[in-house]
Inverse folding.
């Protein structure tokens, strides 16, 4: 599982927009009832044994974390400040084990429309418009600097943390250290633990370094390694504070998308009408995707706007120029609203590899802009 994907499976949020994020790489409807017994998963987690299968004792594992941190350049000061008193966070393990990832190998494709009704709402859009008004100069500057649509930045900020209201209050060292020790995805979480230690060396305090149960932090919900490499100063104070500064959060999201290949001046996609006669087999994707097959295999092969027009695919409102490369996505199947998507949609998928997520970001951004 990638770090970009992991950071999406973390927040238990109160608002309709930030809550119930789709599982990474899955197309499971997070609003649908869980499989029988899954709702009781957290309650059924047994007490954590002193020595999990294949793992060191907690005290021995902390010594391992200290040694790895020092070997990767973390200061002795930070190691001594964090490791001796570090405790197991049992809640992180419970939440990790209770993740509703969907049944392995399931081919059931849920409809998008019910999710859209819950997550593309007047309240979400109006709050996004208020954000744009409040940060107008900053957002326009970042759009010019990074090339990323300002309304996409706002939509992601809203989706991740309900416009900064809910960012998580787990101690990152406890959460990441515990999940690394538990062992199911040790290398991933251990690497993120060391990255969090490096953040402390850079001057972030223990009070800063809080977030979700799986280590995603701040208004951007970045994992520590992404904070190290991608967080940016958006307010000009010389400090990238994704916990306390909205301009810094927007700059960091813009930088993230820019590094993932966002193309300046191109929208994420458009709604289209598809003729009943369209031969879906003839436009089916031919090469296996490099990531998230359950997500990307629902998209067609790439064709130009002119080629889609020739096949009878008609834009509902706005369109692209004839030479723009696009792929078709029918979230609710033939006969319903479909979308032609650009590579910028794929950049949103890098933030969270879920069609539910990326399509919602695009639609909310469009509504905020109107």
């Amino acid at each position: 599982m990638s770090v970009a994907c992991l950071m999406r499976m973390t927040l238990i949020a109160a608002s309709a927009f930030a809550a119930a994020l789709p599982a990474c790489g899955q197309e499971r409807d997070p609003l649908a009832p869980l499989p029988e017994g899954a709702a009781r998963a957290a309650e059924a987690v047994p007490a954590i044994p002193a020595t999990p299968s294949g793992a060191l004792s907690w005290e021995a594992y902390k010594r391992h974390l200290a040694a790895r941190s020092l070997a990767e350049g973390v200061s002795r000061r930070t190691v001594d400040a964090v490791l001796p008193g570090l405790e197991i966070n049992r809640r992180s393990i419970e939440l990790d084990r209770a993740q509703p990832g969907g049944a392995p190998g399931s081919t059931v494709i849920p409809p998008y429309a019910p999710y859209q009704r819950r997550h593309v709402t007047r309240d979400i859009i109006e709050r996004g418009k208020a954000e744009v008004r409040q940060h107008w100069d900053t957002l326009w500057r970042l759009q010019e600097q990074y090339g990323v649509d300002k309304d996409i930045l706002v939509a992601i900020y809203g989706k991740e943390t309900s416009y900064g209201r809910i960012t998580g209050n787990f101690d990152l060292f406890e959460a990441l250290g515990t999940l690394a020790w538990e062992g199911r995805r040790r290398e991933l979480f251990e690497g993120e633990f060391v990255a969090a230690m490096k953040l402390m060396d850079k001057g972030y305090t223990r009070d800063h370094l809080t977030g979700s149960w799986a280590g995603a932090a701040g208004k951007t919900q970045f994992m520590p390694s992404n904070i190290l490499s991608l967080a940016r100063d958006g307010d000009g104070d010389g400090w990238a504070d994704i916990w306390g500064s909205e301009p810094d959060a927007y700059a960091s999201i813009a930088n993230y998308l820019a590094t993932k290949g966002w193309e300046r001046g191109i929208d994420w996609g458009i709604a289209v009408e598809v003729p009943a006669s369209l031969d879906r087999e003839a436009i089916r994707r031919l090469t296996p995707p490099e990531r998230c097959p359950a997500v990307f295999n629902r998209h067609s092969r790439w064709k130009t706007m002119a080629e889609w027009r020739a096949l009878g695919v008609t834009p509902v409102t706005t369109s692209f120029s004839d030479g723009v490369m696009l792929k078709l996505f029918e979230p609710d199947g033939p006969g319903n609203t479909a979308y032609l998507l650009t590579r910028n949609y794929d950049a949103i998928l890098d933030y969270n590899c879920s069609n539910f997520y990326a399509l919602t970001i695009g639609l909310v951004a469009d509504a905020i802009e109107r």
User: Anything to note?
Assistant: The first helix runs from residue 3 to 6. The domain at 52-99+169-211 is CATH 1.10.8.350 (Helicase, Ruva Protein; domain 3). The chain has 17 helices and seven strands. The beta strands are 170-171, 210-211, 269-273, 303-304, 314-315, 325-329, 338-341.
